[in-house]
């Protein structure tokens, strides 16, 4: 026996069968892009033992949620994101204005050109209505050491339906740590704008022995980026997102992924498994075994 190629008509037939079986084409569906983390790189991009690593986390996250191959608004020419924190509040000890950290992040995100910052006292409610028209992504600062307060969180939570609709239209969301045993500026209903997200907090810990997963490596992150500062919460589940990095106990520090979003979780985008299966199907047709006579 030997392998003999099928004629072109056979390949066409196999493709038709795949389509009839409902095998999706790559990126056929519009999906939302989400990156959430228990690190607080809005603070540590400016202050701490590993500023460069924190800058790299910001860069990887914002690049992921604003990837024009998936973010329909970026692809349509909207390249500004909305950064949420209280930048009009007095800054208590242990916190900093996250705008400085974002601006310093690798690649640079200068305020007023690639992002705007708004808090509860600075028009946040009205700016959230501009998701998808003025902004292609939403970036939510940390409540320690950034400046997300309960006032901003309450407004975000009240816009839960709008934010989910924005994601399902192809928008992006980068959410930074909520919850700390020390000095959090929020006290309840954390992550209410993504109600399926649950965290263990407080889990304030120095970053030592943290590990990036292969998925995180694919985002451009390394172990050197996620160690050397501090983090303030871990996620209790994956919510059908991909694990980006973990602490020495195996607890989840960051998650990222794309899919359809609901109040119950994320339905991942049509994955490479089905596409890989289609490729195998075609290869099987291309190199079908035939008995040599």
Helix content: 25-40%
Net shape: globular
Largest sheet: 9 strands, mixed
Number of domains: 2
Q: What's the Cα radius of gyration?
A: 22 Å
Structural class: alpha/beta
Number of helices: 11
Span between termini:
9 Å
The number of distinct β-strands equals 15
- Percentage of residues in DSSP E strands: 15-25%
Q: Are there runs of 5+ residues with pLDDT below 50, and where?
A: 1-27, 272-293
Please describe what this structure looks like.
It contains eleven helices and 15 strands. The model is unreliable at 1-27 and 272-293 (pLDDT under 50). The chain has 293 residues and is α/β, with parallel strands linked by helices. It starts with a strand and ends with a strand. The protein has helices at residues 8-20, 41-44, 51-65, 72-75, 98-104, 124-128, 150-158, 160-168, 214-218, 223-226, 272-286; strands spanning 2-3, 32-37, 81-84, 115-118, 137-140, 172-175, 199-200, 205-206, 211-212, 230-231, 234-235, 242-246, 252-262, 265-268, 289-290. The strands form four sheets. Strands 2, 3, 4, 5, 6, 9, 12, 13 and 14 form a nine-stranded mixed beta sheet that branches. A two-stranded antiparallel sheet has the order 1-15. A two-stranded antiparallel sheet has the order 7-11. Helix 1 runs antiparallel to helix 11 (272-286). The protein folds into two domains: 1-25 and 270-293, no CATH class; 29-269, no CATH class.
Give structural attributes.
about 290 residues, alpha/beta, nine-stranded mixed β-sheet, two-stranded antiparallel sheet, disordered C terminus
């Amino acid at each position: 026996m030997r392998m003999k190629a099928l004629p072109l008509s056979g390949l066409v037939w196999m493709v038709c069968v795949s389509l009839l079986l409902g095998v999706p084409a790559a990126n056929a569906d519009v999906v939302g892009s989400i990156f959430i983390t228990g690190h607080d790189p809005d603070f540590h991009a400016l202050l701490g033992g590993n500023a460069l690593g924190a800058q790299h986390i910001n860069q990887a996250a914002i690049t992921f949620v604003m990837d024009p191959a998936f973010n329909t608004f970026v692809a349509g020419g909207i390249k500004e994101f909305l950064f949420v924190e209280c930048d009009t509040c007095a800054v208590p000890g242990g916190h900093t204005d996250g705008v400085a950290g974002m601006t310093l992040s690798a690649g640079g995100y200068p305020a007023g050109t690639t992002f705007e910052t708004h808090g509860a006292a600075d028009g946040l409610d009205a700016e959230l209505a501009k998701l998808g028209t003025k902004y292609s992504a939403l970036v939510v600062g940390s409540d320690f050491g950034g400046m997300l307060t309960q006032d901003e969180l309450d407004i975000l939570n009240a816009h839960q339906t709008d934010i989910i609709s924005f994601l399902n239209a192809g928008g992006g969301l980068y959410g930074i740590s909520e919850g700390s045993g020390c000095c959090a500026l929020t006290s309840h209903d954390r992550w209410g704008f993504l109600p399926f997200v649950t965290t263990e907090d407080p889990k304030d810990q120095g970053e030592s022995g943290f590990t990036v997963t292969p998925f995180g490596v694919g985002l451009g992150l390394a172990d050197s980026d996620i160690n050397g500062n501090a983090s303030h919460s871990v996620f209790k589940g994956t919510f059908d997102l991909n694990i980006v990095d973990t602490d020495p106990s195996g607890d989840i520090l960051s998650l990222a992924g794309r899919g359809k979003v609901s109040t119950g979780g994320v339905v991942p985008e049509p994955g490479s498994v089905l596409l890989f299966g289609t490729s195998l199907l075609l290869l099987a047709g291309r190199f079908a075994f035939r008995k040599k006579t």
